[in-house]
Amino acid sequence: MASKPKLLAFAGSLRKESVNKKLVQVAAKGAEQAGAEVTFIDLVDYPLPILNQDDEQANGAPENAKKLHQLFAESDGFLLASPEYNGGLSAALKNLIDWLSRPSSGEPALASFQGKVVSLMSASPGGLGGIRALPNVRFILDGLGCITLPKQLALSKAYEAFDDQGGLVNNVHQETALKLGRNVVEMVKKLKD
Ligand SMILES: Cc1cc2nc3c(=O)[nH]c(=O)nc-3n(C[C@H](O)[C@H](O)[C@H](O)COP(=O)(O)O)c2cc1C
User: Which part of the chain is the NADPH-dependent FMN reductase-like domain (predicted)?
Assistant: First the structure.
């Protein structure tokens, strides 16, 4: 393929010291090493109101939803790290998905999701690494038309998992996270060639 795959990397967390933001940035390195152009977005830079259809009808989508729509629609895929909140995905991530699932002027329906290749991961200070959130996220994204790759990573004990440079202390985990990034690039290239 002529142009580099364009990927978005983001976490469903607003927390400054988010371990999910750290994890997805390792996967982003793997994608860059495999030839992708990766844009990391921090959801705290795109505050969105909780979607209320009455407000949406009265005022349209907020500016941040429009900006995110464009970023998502222009990308070939995503690297997504989801925190686990009470066994599911965070409200910030669900609200983002809800806003992006709404029609946007000039874009085909679900342009933010249809055909986007996704690697999923999660990180948690607990022993299960947030693995209960991932089937939730996978189900939602698949329903919206994403191609969610089977390989995933649930990183347990995540508060102790990173070194000062943002890498994973455990080499196997580091390699797995890098590979999640590479997997998206390889699939995007296969689909586009
Ligand atoms: C409302 C809430 C619910 C949580 N529920 C879970 C949970 O079900 N499983 C889990 O492993 N951690 C749970 N946690 C702890 C998070 O894994 C932890 O706060 C983690 O740091 C969140 O990811 P982040 O660092 O990327 O923000 C919960 C945290 C909050 C604030």
Answer: 5-159
Domain spans of the chain, in order of start: 6-192
Question: Taking CB atoms and a 6 Å cutoff, what residues make up the pocket around ligand 1?
Answer: 11, 13, 15, 18-20, 83-87, 123-126, 128, 130
Ligand 1, pocket-test mutation among 10, 23, 85, most atoms within 8 A of CB: 85
Which of the four pLDDT bands, split at 50, 70 and 90, describes residue 108?
Answer: confident
**Which residues have a Cβ under 8 Å from the Cβ of 149 and sit 6 or more positions away?**
117, 118, 119, 120, 180, 183, 184, 187
The listed CATH number (1.10.630.10, 3.40.50.360, 3.30.70.60, 3.30.950.10) that belongs to domain 6-192? 3.40.50.360
